[in-house]
Q: What sequence folds into this?
């Protein structure tokens, strides 16, 4: 017969929420604008590559169409990413102070023992406001 274990340490998911403030909206908007600027640079590079391939294609039409298709596919992916970031930027401007939004997920260690409630052990949220943890919720309370 195996010995009975009274407690064990496991990992659990922790939901990280951000409480919206003017500072959060501003920082998130700056971050998104920087990401948009990087995507714009990437689009410009791809446009330049397309133009260069078009010029090369005039001189030697064989074998270049595949390169052009790859660049166009990459350009479409970047344009889609740009559209999603632009939508996110609009969403951020509409957030209200005090509203909580999910920012991500992390893992934490937790000691559990016989008799603990599983839902209380596994349901944990961190609430962050202006880069400071302001609340730790256990048991899925909101």
A:
């Amino acid at each position: 017969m195996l010995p009975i274990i009274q407690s064990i340490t496991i990992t659990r998911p922790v939901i990280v929420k951000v409480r919206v403030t003017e500072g959060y909206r501003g920082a998130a908007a700056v971050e998104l604008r920087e990401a948009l600027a990087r995507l714009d640079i990437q689009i410009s590079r791809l446009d330049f590559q397309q133009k260069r391939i078009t010029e090369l294609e005039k001189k030697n039409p064989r074998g270049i169409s595949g390169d052009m298709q790859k660049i166009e596919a990459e350009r479409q992916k970047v344009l889609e990413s740009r559209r999603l970031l632009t939508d996110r930027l609009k969403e951020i401007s509409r957030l209200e102070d005090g509203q909580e939004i999910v920012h991500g997920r992390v893992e934490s260690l937790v000691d559990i023992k016989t008799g603990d409630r599983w839902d209380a052990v596994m349901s944990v949220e961190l609430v962050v406001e202006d880069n400071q943890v302001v609340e730790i919720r256990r048991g899925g309370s909101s």
